[in-house]
Design goal:
alpha+beta, Beta-Lactamase, Phosphatase 2c, domain 1, five-stranded antiparallel β-sheet, 9 helices
Length: 442
């Protein structure tokens, strides 16, 4: 016998079926979301390529939510560089012209750091007077947060149906939340690899720079010539050289490039090439400094300059012809413990294009020693930021004037380094010592 249901019972049954259908749909949506998140996690967890990771995140987000395009913009939240775009990765499900993240949206996200849904950009009260691209109809954006810091923004554009929903916003927010750490780890890994590569290149540059310095002390009859260089960093801007011009003459120079690191090192190498390429044909120190100054002035910025001492030692006449480009005044120490300072020259190289450099010739008597140094020797600082100083150097060269050239140089280096032993080396330290009738160093 068939029991006829009343209209009330039919309505109750219909409502029950409707609730079960909605519940089933929510469960299905949850399963789909979990599947999406699981697939995404598997797809990006094994990669350290930040670009590949970001494109995967965008592609999965577009597919799951049904958007037309998407992008990830990584940002730098440092106060002095807020909002700088570091990386932008974009994926499109169509052949439409790529859309771009509006700077106003970027600013809003930096302030609010929460998901944003816009289905009518032109009339959204949060972005009044903002000019959106005409092809943008709807926007869904979520922050990539790492340790409460905004590292990027994941944005989707133009949902294929009527617009983005609250469920879409929740899903994109979860995707962004779970992806942020992976993106950041990949970016940090790439930065670390880039840093390691740069460090290897700097170390190689340092080795090459050391090879540009004299490999051994010159064997000069009746004279002892020695030099030493210590860089404050892996590469430096100090330079010294001994160049044999003929049987009786030696070119001797010591230079100090402004600044430190690779830029100073490159300029130093350029200076060495200029001097070595010209000193054989133009051994006049003043003329050579004039020519080198013009080349440096024309090929470097105004912030770069070089101080340089250049001398030509004649072991037959026992004279030193020299000129200086703004360098520290060398000490010429005599056998009776008196001394002179060699001050003739002009401005540092690279400051003025047509600078002239005066020359002077001094006699090198028996027992005389010449100490040429860079300001890294006198500028070394102790833990209280006190300089080693020129007065201390002067006292030391006089007290140890009876030592050999090598011993005198080592004594000065030891004293300056000991002065700054509790502090990081402030500047490159370089010295050349010339002694007549001193014991020849091996």
């Amino acid at each position: 016998m068939t029991v006829k249901k009343t209209d009330h019972e039919v309505e109750e049954l219909r409502q029950k079926i409707l609730r079960l259908t909605e519940k089933n749909q929510r469960l299905q949506n949850a399963v789909n979301e979990l599947s999406t998140l699981n697939d995404l996690s598997l797809a990006i967890s094994g990669s350290v390529d930040s670009e590949e990771i970001m494109r995967t995140i965008i592609s999965r987000s577009i597919h799951s939510i049904g958007a037309e395009q998407g992008d990830i913009t990584l940002v730098d939240e440092k106060e002095e560089d807020s909002g700088k775009t570091l990386v932008r990765s974009m994926v499109s499900s169509t052949n439409h012209t790529p859309l771009h993240l509006n700077q106003n949206l970027l600013g809003w996200m930096q302030i609010n750091k929460k998901p944003l849904l816009i289905n009518d950009p032109g009339n959204d009260s949060r972005f009044q007077n903002v000019q959106w691209e005409e092809t943008i109809h709807s926007i869904l954006s979520a922050p990539l947060m790492n340790r409460s810091k905004l590292i990027g923004i994941l944005t989707l554009y133009n949902k294929e149906e009527e617009g983005f929903t609250e469920d879409d916003k929740r899903l994109l927010s979860i995707i962004a939340s779970q992806s942020a750490q992976v993106v950041e780890n990949a970016r940090l890994h790439e930065e670390e690899q880039a840093f390691k590569k740069m460090r290897r290149e700097v170390e190689l540059a340092g080795k090459i720079q050391k090879q540009l310095l004299p490999k051994e002390q010159p064997d000069v009859e009746q004279y002892s010539l020695c030099g030493r260089n210590i860089t404050a960093h892996s590469v430096g801007g100090d330079y010294y050289d001994f160049v044999q011009l003929d049987q009786n003459r030696w070119g001797i120079c010591l230079g100090d490039v402004s600044g430190k690191g690779l830029p100073a090192s490159l300029l130093m190498s350029n200076l060495q090439a200029i001097l070595r390429g010209q000193i054989i044909y133009q051994p006049s120190p003043g003329t050579l400094l004039h020519q080198a100054n013009r080349q440096l002035y024309q090929n470097t910025g105004i912030e770069k300059f070089v101080t340089l001492f250049l001398g030509v030692l004649d072991i037959d006449s026992h004279t030193l012809q020299y000129a200086s480009g703004g360098h520290e005044y060398p000490f010429l120490i005599h056998s009776d413990n008196t001394h002179d300072r060699l001050k003739t020259g002009g401005l540092p190289l690279g400051v003025m294009e047509d600078q002239e450099y005066e020359e002077e010739t001094v006699e090198f008597n028996q027992g005389d020693k010449l100490v040429i140094y860079s300001d890294g020797i006198t500028d070394s600082r102790d833990s209280e930021d006190k300089e080693f100083g020129e007065d201390r150097l002067e006292q030391l060269v006089i007290e140890d004037s009876d030592k050999s050239a090598q011993e005198l140089m080592d004594s000065i280096f030891d004293a300056s380094l000991d002065h700054s032993k509790e502090s990081q080396l402030f500047d490159d330290m370089t010295m050349v010592v010339i002694s007549r009738n001193a014991t020849k160093e091996m």
